[in-house]
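The protein record now logged underneath.
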Amino acid sequence: MNMRNLNDLEFLQAVHKGVDLELHTSVLFREMKVAGLDFYQLYFDCAIRTQITSPGWKLMRRIQRAYYLAKYVEYADALHAPKAECGVFRGLSALITCHVQKSLRPEFAGEDYYLIDSYQGLSELKESDLAARQLSNGQIEWGHTHRAGHFAVPMDVVASNLAGFPRLNFVEGWIPEALTQLPETKWSFVHIDVDLFEPTLGCLEYFMPRMVPGGVILNDDFSSPLFPGGGKAWVQYFGDRGLPYLVLDTGQSVYVKPQ
């Protein structure tokens, strides 16, 4: 086996074929708790509700990412300021976030939680979003892994998936322009999952000056092999300002504003 295959998606798909994923997810995640909730059950309930499926090679990391997201939401809820998600797709992470908040505050119905998305999929990919792929001859090929419009889910579909929380705030438009529709306020938690360089940088430029002390910004795409632009924007923003941040083994990055 060539070592390059360890990060090759075709290789990962092949070796996971036939694996008992239910056994492994149960062993690894069944005892996890967030805000008093059984996270294992919460994740799969929300995945079913939002019709999210994961190939075997991606499922473990997706559950871990969702768990870390939920734990930071639990932490940030004590800061008593609005929360936002940039890049919503079908609403899986938003639904998990809502249930965590409702477990902490039974009256929660979606208020002060803002879901910002074009609801038309990816914007145009730029040079900063080019991804590297190693060919069988060892050469590197550069290209875009997805096209504009990928991940498009109409807002009414997402709203239906999140119907149990009728006071959610949906913000429709391209980031960063759509951020001008937000109320001028401070934020306790921001989840960035927009894949590409320009919208990731736009989110950071908007939200960073508006975070409360202790507030959390979590980036889903710091080390994504398919969407390197999200990580490049994060590195550029924090590097230019000399600010420290945490990189998780799931490929996420996290910044917590000092108290």
Notes: The longest helix spans residues 56-76. Residues 1-6 have pLDDT under 50 and may be disordered. The chain has one domain: 18-256.
